[in-house]
Design goal:
The protein is 47% helix and 11% strand. The strands form three sheets. It has a five-stranded antiparallel beta sheet, covered by helices on one side. The chain has a two-stranded antiparallel ribbon with strand order 1-4. Strands 2-3 form a two-stranded antiparallel sheet.
């Protein structure tokens, strides 16, 4: 059987993608060989040579990797519960231990870009405070990579994401108080100020409609802005605590594209949307007419309406307004 490839322009490439064919320049000289796993340097070479129509091996779920990831995920979820309970009881917060929870999971996958794919593939019986906290920490870890944060700042952001809802274990009944409760608990523990502020302000909105301080754009801590977006993504794509109806990632991209000014910081929204859209290249999706197609090209100006492939037919959803992506197949 012939191998299945995505066809991408050099500007759409991401580190970790694998070449499906040899790449030659205009003089017929080999630039990169089939099987090369791309990094920033090799992507730069392809951009320099202005290579078009690059064959990239389609990503798939590795059953053994999923089995290992599921085992580690469940183990880390139990560890999150244990660590948060310890902090509530007054035991000292250990930043390295908390950071390693999400770091170990990403390392097990090998490629950070696989996080969203394998999180979706998990079969969870419930989406608890602890799984949610772990997911938000994982996404915060990715944000730190995308923005090339220094290592110490990256650790603080991942820990802030992990602890953002710790106030809920202090009081289960006072929902709008949980950011303040978490902040007070972490301040008493001596957590760094950035972690405290990320926890305190993770429900603040750019337009001042959030809580508990109703701060606006210029007064919201950057950690809180990233946690707010990560928190929102996890809630709507996993179905929330009781696994209610999930939102298709492409529908979420559409919502954020149309509402990118208001609740979230545009800088973080744009980075997030561009990354997760590209991460869905090669995915099978169900269209509104019931057919199943493959995402083969992302329109950077209209991320929620990519080009999809049905057999030999290519469908540009930007022009085919009567069609939409309903869900991932």
């Amino acid at each position: 059987m012939a191998e299945s490839f995505l066809r991408l322009d050099s500007l759409a490439l991401e580190p970790g993608m694998e070449l499906g064919e040899n790449i030659f320049n205009e003089q017929g000289i080999l630039v990169l060989g089939k099987g090369t796993v791309l990094d920033q340097k090799t992507i730069g070479r392809l951009i320099f040579h202005d290579v078009k129509n690059i064959a990239i091996k389609k990503g798939t779920i590795d059953s053994q990797k999923l089995k290992l990831f599921t085992y580690l995920y469940n183990e880390k979820t139990d560890l999150v519960q244990h660590r948060l309970s310890n902090i509530k009881e007054g035991k000292l917060l250990n930043r390295e231990q908390l950071y390693n929870i999400s770091k170990d999971l990403i390392r097990a996958l090998g490629e950070p870009r696989d996080v969203f794919k394998y999180l979706r593939a998990l079969k969870l019986s419930d989406h608890s405070l602890y799984t949610h906290s772990l997911n938000v920490s994982l996404i915060c870890n990715l944000f730190a990579n995308w923005f090339k944060f220094p290592e110490e700042l990256k650790k603080d952001l991942a820990v802030a994401g992990l602890l953002h809802d710790i106030g809920k274990i202090v009081s289960e009944t006072e929902y709008e108080s949980h950011p303040q409760l978490g902040y007070s608990l972490l301040a008493a523990q001596g957590a760094v100020k950035a972690i405290q502020m990320g926890v305190l302000m993770h429900h603040e909105k750019e337009d001042g409609s959030g809580f508990p301080t109703k701060s606006q754009w210029g007064n919201i801590h950057p950690f809180a802005k990233i946690i707010s977006l990560s928190n929102y993504y996890d809630r709507v794509t996993t179905g929330g605590e009781h696994l209610q109806e999930k939102v298709c990632p492409f529908h979420l991209i559409k919502i954020l594209e149309e509402n990118r000014y208001g609740q979230f910081d545009i800088k973080y929204v744009d980075m997030f949307l561009n990354k997760i859209a590209v991460y869905h290249l090669g995915e099978l999706v169900k269209l509104s007419d019931g057919r199943v197609a493959k995402v083969v090209f992302i329109n950077k100006h209209h991320l929620s309406r990519p080009i999809v492939q049905l057999g030999e037919e290519l469908i540009d959803l930007y022009w085919r307004k009567e069609l939409a992506i309903l869900e991932l197949a």
